[in-house]
Design a protein that fits this description.
28% of the residues lie in helices and 15% in strands. By secondary structure, the chain is α+β, with helices and mostly antiparallel strands.
């Protein structure tokens, strides 16, 4: 005979409720003029109340910004020039926030760009062509390159680093995805060259903590004398 488990928390399990929000954006007083049970109007207010906190999502409106570029003639270089506005992506009709959210949904949540396009249309009335999505990636990468280079410069300053790799397919070609983890940063690198070259590209001149597979034993020996060799 099958015994069905009783629904709900086990007996004696401590109750748990959602934590009260640390702010209130809107306060609503809820009064009654008619009894919701019997429809009566002879109501006398009691000297007590109960607060109910409810969190919800506010769907934002899109913001259209017109950047009007004023041209100037530079007497020094004999060139007509113009500036770039704050938050402006030159030549782009979609702003940086929308592109950043699209990239996060695509790479972190694994949502195809065609579905992201539908989500943007339904929630924000913002349309884009999925074929332009690779351009989103390129712009995000270009704007993140300075920060990526700063992270790479942190690596040689660390006392040790943890290094690991795995296979990675890029446009139908086999590459290596390398991960270098230190106390202050985790840096990834995708490249097709050999193992030793990856370490050189990372510019690591410190002791490497590498998984003890037989393939990495030789790699560890090479790392010790890496500074004395021209790779």
């Amino acid at each position: 005979m099958r015994i069905h488990k009783k629904r709900g928390a086990p007996k004696g399990h401590p109750g748990k409720t959602r934590r009260k929000p640390d702010r209130v954006d809107e306060h609503v007083e809820v009064f009654l003029e008619q009894c919701p049970e019997c429809g009566g109007h002879d109501l006398k207010e009691c000297k007590r109340h109960e607060d109910h906190y409810q969190e919800d999502i506010v769907i934002p409106q899109t913001k259209v910004t017109r950047f009007r570029h004023h041209f100037y003639y530079c007497s020094k270089c004999k060139t007509v020039v113009y500036g770039q506005g704050t938050g402006e992506l030159p030549g782009s009709y979609i702003g940086p926030v929308a592109k950043g959210i699209a990239g996060w949904l695509h790479y972190q949540m694994r949502i195809p760009y065609r579905q992201i396009r539908r989500l943007f249309h339904e929630l924000f009335r913002l349309d884009f062509d999925p074929s332009s999505a690779p351009g989103f990636d390129r712009q995000i990468r270009c704007r993140g390159d300075p920060f990526y280079e700063q992270l790479k410069k942190l690596l040689p300053e660390q006392a040790f680093a943890h290094l690991d790799e795995t296979g990675w397919r890029k446009e139908g070609v086999n590459y290596w995805l390398w991960c270098c983890a230190v106390v202050k940063a985790v840096v990834f690198l995708i490249a097709a060259a050999g193992c030793i070259l990856q370490i050189q590209l990372f510019q690591i001149a410190t002791l490497l903590q590498i998984p003890q597979y037989h393939l990495f034993n030789l790699l560890a020996e090479e790392c010790v004398c890496m500074n004395d060799r021209q790779l």
